[in-house]
Batch of 3 targets.
Target 1
Amino acid sequence: MDLYEHQARELFKAHGIPVPDAAVVAAPREARAAAELLGGRVVVKAQVKTGGRGKAGGVKLAADPAAAELTTRQILAMDIKGHPVRKVMLARPADIEAEYYVSYVLDRAAGTFVAIGSADGGTEIEETAAARPDAVVRIPVDPAEGVTAAKAAAIAHAAGLPAGAADVLQRLWQVMVREDALLVEVNPLVRTTGGGLLALDGKVTIDDNARFRQTRWGADETDPYGGPLEAQARAKGLNYVRLDGRVGIIGNGAGLVMSTLDVVAGCGARPADFLDIGGGASARVMADALALVLSDPQVKSVLVNVFGGITACDAVAEGIVQALESVEVTKPLVVRLDGNSAAAGRAILDRRAHPLVQQVTTMDGAARRAAALAGAGAPADAVPANATPADAVPANATPADATPAEALTGVRAVAHTDPGA
């Protein structure tokens, strides 16, 4: 569960990490009063669980209390990447001399925690790492040992952080451990013109498995899981993560869905979500999943990639048909079915013959088609929507280019690419 920025600030302050004076309000008149208490000139920041607030106009400087009231009214009317703004945080501005980046994150692949630091904060750390890999350091942290004074000093030195940063690093580690976090991030950690350090912005992700210990978070929020779509998914029991692309993704099994995201990214498109319907999904689950993805305004096409096992392809097809009957479908849907009852599933969709539903029998071909339909560029082998795809094969056949392993697992062997999530 992601926390709002003001909640992360509250945690930082409780653990002795220096933060700017701030107040959270939900109405413009409250903003005027809060700005007066903060000295008049404030930064007004939308409280949403997504990135890109600044670029969307959700972070603005207000020169006085009257401007703070007006700016708050404008920001509260915004919707940022599908996240309606219900609260804003007003913070006292800081005189910044330099910006840095620090975080701790659980690296599941490596089976350990990692400290990440950079002397170039204030920007997307992914962009910094891609443009100048040497500017970002990653240092493993033994959870049994933790971040001692010596470890914190080593991290600060390696990352080029200023004096005093080691103390912040130790305190930030305590946030990670004591608050059951999977991620704690300060970006930027700033050195002010007076020489002090301030955590200007922060992010904290709490382990869902520890929610029974972290009950204070989300109790007064209408979207504790990140946004309206995430809340709908949680209510339906769907494993869903909203991303920022244009191609909706639905699959069965986390590995297959992740592979699908990679292949779509390799076709020049950005996935709009991660949605795993699981290994034993029913037609009702499939219908709920499709309705959810189609309701996302940023989605321009949807790719359903299912390898039938416990979840038979005919049940998936029935779910798609149910969704087509109950949801107004205005976006093209590309379906790839393979494995258990694939022939029966394809036949069900053929009989339904919905004009916006296309079937492609390989994952690569389906990804190319979905990317093209989303407007991510027309690949050389793209064909009109009403044409038979070049890689289509009879409903009961195995794709000609599938290896034995692919035929058994439904996962294509592709080079890993960053899906841009």
Note: The first helix runs from residue 5 to 14.
Target 2
Amino acid sequence: MKKLSILIAVAIISVSMCACNTSSDTSQASTQNSESSSDVNSNSGDVNTINLNETVTVEEYGDFTVKKFEFTDTVKAYGASAGGYAENREGLTYLDMIVEYTNNSSKEICFHNNLHSEITYSGNYIYTGNAYVESKDGTEFDDYDSTISNGETRLLHFAFNVPDCVESGSENISASINFGEELSGSDGSKSYTGSSYQLTLRDGSKDKISVLSGSANKLDSGEIKIGDIINVNDTIEFELKEGGWAEEIKPHNPGTSYGYLNDKDDKIYAYCYLNIKNGSATELDDEIEGEIIYDNKRYLSSEKAETPDGSDFDNFDIIPLQSGNLYIVTELPDDAKNSEPLDFKITILGNEYTYTLE
């Protein structure tokens, strides 16, 4: 999404709500597979199946073992005396996948450039993890661009922010671990210059889970008004809660400290305020856009999510099986408010909807 600059730094909290119907089997860690080792030197593009606690040798990189995974409110190094490196957000939790890695190559390895991971929940919903490497003494995490020297063994943490229902449910959770440089295809697909591995963290069903209400109006495009609830391609649902003009955009329930958007002299904001439920496989990013044509000029919108309690703005996108409130905001010349009614065009997954600003 195109990000708006704000006058106060925003908190890193996401707007979330998971509404999936699952059983309450909460497994905090899994070490069910006996320890083993293998020498897997695959070619780029191949995907190798591995198990928990299986030590794998990767040509040009070294040995790695996925030791376990656990759900947690904070992600921190095992030797940390207090505090956490990252805290979860309301309605979400962390899945922390712990990997032991030994650099047996002849070079230093920059972990963040050479090792990538994703998890897939219930066979459909994809979450990308943040990678952290523990310091040599295990008391903290190293800097983002730190390297692991030849012969060193470190614990790595892949932290995935997921809805609470991923922890409480019993559906399948699988993980991919990919070595080398990440490459993006023209269709948005990903590939890697090194080896790729797949493992099951939790066995279970791979059924599709719905967070949509079922009562929304299925509309591919067209005019919308305040209160309309729209189903987009059976994967996303949104409600247009508000729309209008404002000199300032701020959260609905401002806290003692919060970010806000303040227009410049001779400028004004046109905005739409949506509640969005994401039932798609990936996070919503560039899939939501807005624009207004005024005085024969095209004005593009920016998007900003609220925190769950509406007290601040949020820098995170809406992940699969999550709901959130989102502003779509366009800055226009001040006299636009007094012109003829303007069409605010909102594009979601390529579908165009129009709200008329009076």
Note: The first strand starts at residue 36 and ends at 39.
Target 3
Amino acid sequence: MNTFVVFIGFKGGLDMLSFFPTPYPDELFYSVVARYHYWSRNKSLFQTNEDLYDFRTIVPQAAFPTGLGILKSKISQNQSFELDSLIYKHSFFPLIELFINNGKSDMILDVMKGDDPKKSVEVQLGICRFQLINRHIMYCPICYADDVHRYGEGYLHRIHQLNGIKVCPIHEHALISSGFDYSYGKKKYAVFDVGSIKIPQTIRPVPISKWDLQISKMTAALFSRRWHIRLEDLKKFYIRKIEAMSLFNSGFVRRKKFNEQFIDFFGQEYLSTITSELGINFIADLEKLINDSTTKIPNVHPILHVLIMIFLEVDLKYLEQKVVLSDQEYELFIT
């Protein structure tokens, strides 16, 4: 077990933790809490919540953990525990940050770093209408086997838990459902036993969709960067790319033509399947996103942005290189 050890003691009236697991690469913070629950030998999640947050009746937030300020205060200052690193490397925040306004980004960071683990980032963002986290905990059998071999235990990868991701971007293997339902965990105050995953003796390749693979790889690339692009500039980038495809006329997006080409590109059957799983109104959200306004930009599922980027053949390295800092404002230059 990879942990950093902290002496038991008291700090400002708070019980200090005796240990807390060090997060592994791309480990979802929910998984870190699950490993703490297992190694602490607590009999219930109530006790684990008491240890970490001084609250008994909460459920660990999978996508956007909140109340991290309390947890940090319970860990020795001699140990490395940086909230920014935890948020950017072990939550969904770096993915969603690119697709929301800067003011909301700061608000979300304040909530996550704050002292109230009961607050919901989804409520703050107004994105409760679609499902960000997979219904069931998912895993790649090759990743899990490699992690057990390397670290002595397996864990949940962040990228695998995003709703809409069906393929491991590293091993290009179809993800497997653990059968554990996140909503069940919330209702029953239960946390998943990460060690309960069984490694199959033989891992056979499973047919995968080329779109699922592309979505997975682009999403992984988006997760891996700390973007400094304003949402308005990203929208302008979309519009310029749409214009280059002759889908722009007299200053307006030719929406009907755009929708037709978009559907023809991915296929009606594939889009119907994935948008049903995401819980979104595909046509309505797509039209809102590609409308002509660069100031009124709706919150949509990040996978819809990924689909648009694939359709518009967006090169993320090119996009990143075209953003420069000028007079403390980010400007996007399109050639």
Note: Strands lie at 3-5, 10-11, 14-15, 19-21, 136-139, 176-181, 248-249, 252-253, 323-326, 329-332.
